[in-house]
Amino acid sequence: QVHVVESGGGSVQAGGSLRLSCAAFGYTYSTYCMGWFRQAPGKEREGVAGIYTGSSSTYYSDSVKGRFTISQDGAKNTVALQMNSLKPEDTAMYYCAAQPPPCSVDVTRRRYPYWGQGTQVTVSS
Description:
The strands form two sheets. Strands 2, 4, 5, 6, 9, 10 and 11 form a seven-stranded mixed beta sheet that branches. Strands 1-3-8-7 form a four-stranded antiparallel beta sheet, with no helix packed on it. It is built from no helices and eleven strands. The chain is globular, with a radius of gyration of 13 Å. The termini are far apart. By secondary structure, the protein is an all-beta fold.
């Protein structure tokens, strides 16, 4: 059974930064894709960034490109999402998800079978 756990959410003022972390446990694969998604109240869950741990290939949505960076964070089963220049519209519950190989680095929700519980990010103006 694969478990995904997020950490690092919180509150910050516009223009500030936050770093989210995600770890996947129980994986039998040596490489896989991990993605970050977010869901604001009343809106659909959207993908923001993805990474393939085998090559560190990444994908970003247009809304976060240039501001967010996804990376492997030390251990192979851990990835981080560095969020800079945060805006009030970035406020949402952020979810991490894992996708076994063969996998696609783009953050298409239906491709990810394993999900964390989410961590709240609030950006005030």
